[in-house]
Input
Amino acid sequence: MGAKPGEASSAQVRNQQQANRRVTSVDVAAESGVSQATVARVFSSPEKVSPATREKVRSAAERLGYVPNAIARSLKSQRTNIVGAVVPAYGEYWQNVLAEFSRQLAQRSYQLLLFSFAKPEDVDGALGSVAQYRLDGVILASATIGQAQLGRMQSSPLPSVAFNQPAAEGLVPSVSVDNEVGMAELAQHLVDMTVGTALYIGGVSSVSTDQVRYRGAVQALAEHGVACPYMEAGAYTYDAGYKAAGELAQRDNLPEAVMVGSDEVAFGVLDGLENAGISAPRDLLLTGFDGLPQASWAGYDLTTLVQATDVLVAQAIDVLLDSNTAADRPASVVVPGTIRYGMTTKKTDG
Amino acid sequence: MGAKPGEASSAQVRNQQQANRRVTSVDVAAESGVSQATVARVFSSPEKVSPATREKVRSAAERLGYVPNAIARSLKSQRTNIVGAVVPAYGEYWQNVLAEFSRQLAQRSYQLLLFSFAKPEDVDGALGSVAQYRLDGVILASATIGQAQLGRMQSSPLPSVAFNQPAAEGLVPSVSVDNEVGMAELAQHLVDMTVGTALYIGGVSSVSTDQVRYRGAVQALAEHGVACPYMEAGAYTYDAGYKAAGELAQRDNLPEAVMVGSDEVAFGVLDGLENAGISAPRDLLLTGFDGLPQASWAGYDLTTLVQATDVLVAQAIDVLLDSNTAADRPASVVVPGTIRYGMTTKKTDG
DNA sequence: GTGAAAGCGCTAACAT
DNA sequence: ATGTTAGCGCTTTCAC
Output
């Protein structure tokens, strides 16, 4: 159990910097016998300080446990080296995107400040906080950020980029996978597999990615005379997919193919159908969208549209940090996806 | 109003075109004809300002597009309302933990600043940056933070909490699931299922959670005369598990049970075995650890030790933010896990 | 190469 | 209730 580390004598505490007072450049200046300005230079532009003083200051700093204060630096320099991200708190897809942002930003020595929200209503609050930190930019990564909110970002001095949010195009610089074409390509693949009837299972019909993807499916299938009704799972979750599959299984006649609007929902649909004795590709073909790592897991092996997350994220960061003038900031970048052909659309002998 | 119309209009124009100069409380003061301090009060302690002035200031602020500067606020108040998290960039488990932290911190109106790293070598860099931002606390969520690094945190003025890091106990306040007992309980379950031989597949043997979990398994099994050799997957990934399973499948005699050190690896093991024609629970029993959402997906339905992530995270936040004096900061909090009984250890008729 | 001094935009006494 | 004033810890001219 918790053995107490002994009575920390106040002397020891102070010695170890556990103290209430933090070490500043003034302390280091005093300790090393130079001016505060010189200490600051040692930590921001060392080349402007002679090697001798530099060393003297460095050792004093080390002795005192001095670390430059980024807050003060930011206040003065007007740059934080921090990028904000407004992201839904849940969902495999967003977690992966976030991880990728964090990784790539770290490489450019930026930090990521998270503003996550559980419910769409909380977006406003998140956006409100975002503005207070003078961030170098903000990533709007959620399909549930409304038009009004995007409009507000547009007229804000804070650079922003919308990630995978078709509705944002024209309002805010945006980077997306080609949702419509991607879904159309999947549909074409199904047509090639001689599918004659299809069903689309979306997450939430009011979300713009949902609409755009569905449109891609419907149009591509229509060209071949295949209808594609819409079914709403109600959420972008495994459970919603599982439940939708249960309902689907009740129906008299099954479609020959089911196109699901996202992988996470697709996994649920797959398991839900399996649970009802319906198996892909034996009884119907099934496709997902996103290209989550799990889609490649042998247990699922899902046909899906893989988003090149690394490319999308790289583009988004470029738009955010490298295009300083409004002029060369592109209105929108669209990155094509790639189909992953899995077992769920494999030809059976039947 | 008495304010000079020329100034006001030029400010407005700037605001509309993504101003280069940002609006400060001084601008709002000028616009609304009060002192800067009053403007500040309106935004930090409105109750100290008369309703009339409050309204006047608010509308001026709105007109100018003023938002308080959190950087300046932090510099003065010595509080950032930001908590840092040093977390591995990859891995299902960590992504879930992070999402939970972000959610719970948002509820307490804290923001999360991410310091993620891809390779263990990068931890030092991340910890270095952490110190610069005067965060209100930092979460050390990674088993690969070394003793030396923890020691440094211990003597730093920045409050910190180690998350699921047995090696940190005694050095830094820590919150963990009961790794050893949890794994022992899973082992006991296997014994109850009359298992006579077992194998443990760990991720990386040098990681402390790995060691503690393995110890739990070995000791519990030894009490019943069951040996449990160790096999290292080499990473905490699906692929590593899949590969390990491939090697295992080559062996002459299979163990009756395989205990895997983490769910993500376990999924790979499960699929890898399946690929070799070995199926759980038919040919051997299999357990995981962590209780990832996917463990409950019908496709896997894994027996595993579920970590109550929400409880662990809540505890960690408490330790970090609510225990201000070193005295009432507990050395370590250990939260028990719960077994989820899945199909992979279900009794077969054989 | 180094020091002195003026802020960055806010908060928090302290006056009034 | 409101204004005045003095910083928070840095960066950055501008002198020397």
